[in-house]
From TrEMBL, chain A:
Name used for this protein in its record: Cytochrome c oxidase subunit 1
Lineage of the organism: Bacteria, Pseudomonadati, Pseudomonadota, Alphaproteobacteria, Hyphomicrobiales
Principal subcellular localisation of the protein: membrane
CDD domains on file: Ubiquinol_Oxidase_I
SUPFAM superfamilies linked to this entry: Cytochrome c oxidase subunit I-like
Automatic annotation (TrEMBL), chain B:
Subcellular location: Membrane
Source species, domain of life: Bacteria
A Pfam family annotated for this UniProt entry: Cytochrom_C
Keywords attached to this entry: Copper, Electron transport, Heme, Iron, Membrane, Metal-binding, Respiratory chain, Transmembrane, Transmembrane helix, Transport
Ranges of residues in domain Cytochrome oxidase subunit II copper A binding: 117-233
Regions crossing the membrane: 39-63, 84-108
Domain Cytochrome c: residue ranges: 244-335
Record's protein name: Cytochrome aa3 subunit 2
Family recorded in the similarity comment: Belongs to the cytochrome c oxidase subunit 2 family.
Primary residence: membrane
Amino acid sequence: MSETALRPHENKETLDTDVTDGELPARLAATWGTAGGLIGALSTVDHKLIGRRYIVTGFFFLVLGGLAAVAMRLQLARPENSLIGPDLYNQIFTMHGTTMMFLFGVPIGEAIAVYLVPLMVGTRNIAFPRLNAFSYYVYLFGGLMIWIAFALNVGADNGWFSYVPLAGPEFSPGKRADFWAQMVTFTEVAALAVAVEIVVTVLKLRAPGMTLDRIPLFVWAMFVNAFLIIFAMPAVMLASSLLILDRLLDTHFFNQAEGGDPLLWQHLFWFFGHPEVYIIFLPGTAFVSAIIATFARRPVFGYPAIVLSLIATGFLSFGLWVHHMFTTGLPQLGATFFTASSMMIAIPTGIQIFCWIATLWDGRPVYRTPLLFVLGFFFIFVAGGLSGIMLASVPIDTQVHDTYFVVAHFHYVLIGGAVFPLLGAIYYWFPKFTGRMMSERLGRWHFWLAIIGFNVAFFPMHLAGLRGMPRRVYTYPAEMGWDGLNLVSTLGATLFVASFLLFLFNVAASLRDGEIAGDNPWDASSLEWATASPPPPHNFDRIPFVTSREPLWAERQALPVVSGLAVDKREVVITTATRALPDLKESSPDPTIWPFVSAIAVGAVFIGSIFTPWAVAWGAPLAAFVIIAWFWPKSIEEDK
Amino acid sequence: MRCCRPALLTPPLLLLTACSGWQSSLDPQGPQADLLAGLFWVFTAVLSAVWLLTMTALVVALLRRHPARTEPLELNTRPERGMARTVGAAAALTLVVVVALTVVSYGAQRALFSGGEAPLTLKVKGHQWWWEVTYEDPGPSRQFTTANEIHVPVGQPVHVKLESADVIHSFWVPNLAGKMDAIPGRENRLVIQASKEGVFRGQCTEFCGWQHAHMAITVVAHSLEDFERWRESQISAAEPPDDPVRKRGMQIFLSRPCVMCHQIRGTPAAGKVAPDLTHIGSRLHIAAGTLPNGRGNLAAWIVDPQGIKPGAHMPLIKLNAEEVEPLARYLEGLK
């Protein structure tokens, strides 16, 4: 076993070189472990525990958003149905979109990154682990707040886009739109925090030897995604803050009568809203790259092309927001620019698809459930991407914009591009998360039900839209001839829901008595498979030294490792950003309850400010107090 | 209205072409909609071909005889180079398709928005949840306002100026043209033109609150002579009722809060916040396409607006049972 020894600190501390291989795991687990009890659970800073909570919470919100969708499908199954009235329907479609975009779509990608990125780059915890804990609680509180508001009949009802002036003070009295705006604030704080953690983890915490060109494609996608979040989210935070100021303090940012502009809202919202789509999609590409390599039994073809495509997608995604506004009467030449840029994004996306197909071409495909979901991704996502090219055309968009054609399109893109890969990812990493395999037989049933149900539910929506059915209508007259298509959609949706029930059953059953997985059940190549399933609190007994882009395939005997890290205190290796040379040993924060308390304080300020601006004045010192407590210097080596 | 039920087993494309309707972008009835439908089919053909090619490549990649390889990292440089060339060629082809479609789209866009003179200009103002329509004319006495129904002469381009009284709405009559938003504080423009006589339906397509679903507009395309006849009758004020029941109906209308919101030209009722009722009897629908026009539906609407269109700004005006019939008769007679 080759070893790269790190220089010890001057003072005497126990290093992993001083401890036998047999004794090391237990001592590291004691150092990095999470205390028992409720306080221990709320104090944890272990990225795997936080990541697991994030994933479970994300799926919890998926279920809630899915139930909202079921309610809508039932209402629309028949023309002039009286099951749900307009007031409730408007809240339900708003909660569906808001939940799927803000409480499921963005967080679930980040959740899986929180769990897997530190393992994949071969480190012991995520960067800023307390911030990570804080971000989870803020996300949870924001999501609970808006759903509790909905349960109390103050659910947001202006759509997930909350266009002004409809969402402004004049046309949305009451607190519904304020809850929506503050939910955005909650989830964006959480998303930004995680994005910063991922960027720093990838740049500074990679295992020695993991140079830029050895970073797994999964990690590259999450890294680019984190930058998208950092640049896109401030726009919507700004927008939602201006909205809440208009509503609570009578500012007039969006009030045209006072020199404001309703279109300003749309520009700010879509400057976030379009990258948002890619923020949801890029984690999908991360899952696809990882799954294809493992099940095609070869490295993904065209690594540099895929990395450059990811970066190009990131840049381009900021240049096409206006295609959501083609019918607002913008100057035609300007609109054409956005047609061109919207279509151009097909090129990096296409290159990724071609590289994955080439990988399968030259591979030896093994048809397990994760690969099936990736094949489903190709089938659905490519269709959705191509109908997106239609929407990029200004003239075609004037016909299909805000109709069910668009509803069909973005469900093809988002479910095809993000949810199918996500489901594949759950089957793929479930053994790593839990130590047990999921049932392959149920997995196949799940896949076929899902792909059939999905297409039966969403394909007819293209036709309904072309035949004149607008979005966001709570009912439609019988003589429009949309009833047959809608009934088919509802039946398909029933199948799709059944597939998710099967999935949840599979998860529950496999948790209890799934086959024991072992460290690397798929013979995959990336570092998360180099440790136990589920991984111990310290992730790796010894930090791996990376010699190849596919470390576990290159080093069949044993991974070379790095030694010289402290055993009795939390220590991680900091490496240089590009060449991943070992640079520093850095302490990693211990568990503490303060992130949880801070999240409560911040949540109280956010929710209180819905009701009175004084909440900000009183809440700021409170938040300052808990944050000071959080950052209070501890008398440890590093602080001296 | 020609519309078929989708047969479940028909292939999707067949199902697409076989269907049309009075609110369908696939059944174009004017030059703008024709152009848009043509462009749609070009895109559909090209993009379907791209999808089929990609799926074929995927299926071939899965079904071919795969290289013998015991270790995943045993890669040969020759096939790798071939794959690089193929991926490069596919990317180049994508670029060609994308550029071609952009150019085609731009051409259509220029043709569509080039503008030009139109003999007829309408101002359409979106309200929660109905459309106010004003026919502009150089002579102020020949201007008139109506609601929720537009009449146009066949074969003539009609300029539509779009405004909003409250929130953002979007004006869309798919058989005639694409949609355009009505945004408060702005004026957007759209050209519609019908190439044959018929009745077409349009609907608000920007979510505008509670009754977004019930904000339809009817477009009636006539021959030029019929259109002029219609216009003359709309310009005129309401004719006073001649029979005693309708006279009683008018009295009820004028003595109730109806006049606070509605206008009937030729009577003291001059409200401007709700649809102009001067010629309501001549319209095909009431309540923005919610109900077919008729005495029964007029009565139902007056008696229970919130049951028919919950949230609508039409309040419930308490009437005695025997007042409903005369009022409905009066309105029905406002041809």
